[in-house]
Amino acid sequence: MSTVDPRTRLLLEAPIGRTLLRLAVPNVIVMVAQAAVGLIETYFVGKLGTDALAGMALVFPIVMLMQMTSAGAMGGGIASAIARALGGGRRADADALVLHAVVVALGFGAVFTLALLLGGRWLYTLMGGTGASLEAALAYSHWVFAGAVLVWLFNSLAAVIRGTGNMTVPANVTVAGVVLLIPLSPLLIFGWGPMPGLGIAGGAIALLLYYLLGTLALLAYLRSPRSLLKVSLTGVTLRWPLFRDILRVGLLGAVSTVATNLAIGIATALAGQFGPSAIAGYGTASRLEYLLVPLVFGFGAPLLAMVGTCIGAGQRERALRATWVGAAMAFGLTEAIGLAAALFPRPWLLLFGNDPAMLEAGTHYLHAVGPFYGFFGVGLVLYFASQGAGRLYWPVVGNLARLVVAGLGGWLALRWSGNLTSVFVAQGVALVVYGTVIASAIAGGAWFGRVGWPRTPRALMQRFRSA
């Protein structure tokens, strides 16, 4: 172990709980900063009027899908592959994986660009866009997705660095970019002095400049002596096994990402049968779940790096101990937030409006689902840990099970009771199924062989202790 880099040694030997907490703080900062990017842009675009804001709202779900796929799904595949290569002492493979990650980013970025430039009008019309709001959506979308490659490169290079156990550099670059975006966004949207205002397109251009400068900063770090990886974008032979190492985790992660958003979309459609206020109430309340994602990611990213490094080094028991420590942290955090929201729903809902029907629907949702947010936290953090292990079968199964319970269960509940609250109860049950399926599979040995389900509670406790 004397030749192991100190950062890798930290993941293999340092106390698990303290190390996860120390590495989680920069990640939480990153996610808060990235959330601030969207809020800043939305705030300034809103000054252009309702049509501009509606146009941006049409594009936002597709931008979020790209973000979640590039940073969480494929980014997790990249970080996992690098962590396992470093843990296994395969430094040459780890170095080569950087170029493979760049190629993956370029490919998927091009797919998003072509899909939205060619099919954007059809998609936004299908989503309800008409007139001036549709034109605003197209103006914003054409610019954002013309530069989709920049978003993919930024998130992929950040994942490369996180895979080495370094959470600080991506955090610093992200925060610096947000500081730059605060004056740049209104400057390009509204203009100043001789510079004309570009309207909603200015917001998109400001966002792309943020990703361009961030990508250059991350690339400069990877080419510097401070980087753990010795990066060369030339003279590296592309190899299918390295692509496979990224894609077998990233593509399955993408399935989970789509399933998560489909579950929320189906619940929105079911709530829509009770009118616009019900949609607004559910949408407002369920935003809290989206906010839990970056908080759990704060623990999930370092857990991914630790699990991947430990498994690469053959330390299976430490990888499992780290997994359950991370799961306990995520459960405690998300359950506390969920219980607080269930007990005191109105302070959160009043941030977005005061329509009585909206408040009533949102309150019913938080009462029914909030107490089960801990299971969502467990399932999500175990998804990240499974990325580190390179074993995503059961997280995908858990997500699909959630989709079935939320969709089919919600539809049946609505048919049998005609009550919106019963639809929300189905969403809460779906979260329990999601977390329980994944946790049970990992406890049953899914990472290292067939799932041997414990037959008694005592056997289950023994399995958890041995993990």
Automatic annotation (TrEMBL):
Lineage, highest ranks first: Bacteria, Pseudomonadati, Pseudomonadota, Betaproteobacteria, Burkholderiales
Main location: membrane
Keyword Membrane: yes
InterPro entries linked: MATE_fam, MdtK-like, Membrane_Transporter-Flippase
PANTHER family: MULTIDRUG RESISTANCE PROTEIN YPNP-RELATED (PTHR43549:SF3)
Keywords: Cell membrane, Membrane, Transmembrane, Transmembrane helix, Transport
Transmembrane spans: 20-40, 52-85, 97-120, 140-161, 173-192, 198-222, 249-271, 291-312, 324-344, 364-385, 392-412, 424-448
GO cellular component terms attached to this protein's record: plasma membrane
Localization annotation: Cell inner membrane
Pfam families named in the record: MatE
Membrane topology annotation: Multi-pass membrane protein
A GO term for molecular function: xenobiotic transmembrane transporter activity
Organism: Variovorax guangxiensis
Name this protein carries in UniProt: MATE family efflux transporter
Keyword 4Fe-4S listed: no
